[in-house]
Each structure stands twice: as structure tokens, then as C-alpha cells.
Amino acid sequence: QVRLRESGPGLVKPSQTLSLTCAVTGGSIMTNYIYWTWIRRPPGKGLELIGYIAYSGSTFYNTALDGRASISREPSTNQFTLNLTSVTPEDTAIYYCNIGDAWGQGTQVTVST
Fold first, then answer.
1. Predicted confidence (pLDDT) per residue in 93-109, tens digit
2. Residue 29, by phi and psi: left (phi above 0), alpha (psi -120 to 50) or beta?
3. Among 15, 28, 57, 111, which has the highest number of CB atoms less than 10 A from its own CB?
């Protein structure tokens, strides 16, 4: 059974870059999956797609993020990562990684001085 676990800093200062990692266990990151996705839930709001990297290596990002997001995968470590630059308090959210039917438990990120 594939399991995902997000990790990263819980607190980031405005204008810094947020880096999150999704560790995949119970299966290879490069086996049978089409999209490796990051999603977030801001406080009091619904789920918001950040973007994904496809099996082919192509990427898609939510245009609302104004080009600040980038997603990459590291097959050697069975992980994929999210980088979000120039964060503001509006990036405060619970961040989730997703592959197929598998979801991480989510990690809280707060952007504050």
C-alpha cells in the first residue's frame, strides 16, 4: 500500500521560499502513477490545486500562483517536492501531496513574521 508523508517547515517568513517534500513508501514513485500532485487548504477555504508533475515530466501549475510554484521528483529517493517562492501570509494553509488514491496527512504551513 502506497503511503505519502509531507515534511517541511511549519513557519516561513514572508518573501522566503517554502520547500516541502513528499516521501513515498510502499511503492516506487515511478510505477503506475500518472500525476504527482500538491494541493492546499487555506484556513476557512476549500481545497486548492497547486500543481502537478506528470509521468512524462511535464508540469502544470495553478495560474493563481503567478509562476511561484515548481514541482520536481527525485526517483532516487522516492520523493517529490514543492517549492513556492516569495510567500505571503495568503500562502498559509495545510499542504497535501497526492498520488492516485493516496494522500498524505497534510502539513501545516504558516507564513508570518
1. 999 999 988 999 999 99
2. alpha
3. 111
Span 21-65, pLDDT tens digits? 999 998 777 776 679 999 999 999 999 999 999 988 899 999 999
Strand spans (E) along 8-68:
11-12, 18-25, 35-41, 48-54, 59-61
Burial of 95 (0-12, 13-18, 19+ CB in 10 A): buried
- Closest by Cα among 30, 43, 45 to 99: 30
Per DSSP bridges, beta strands 35-41 and 48-54 are: antiparallel
Measured between alpha carbons, how far is 16 from 22 in angstroms, rounded to an integer?
Answer: 20
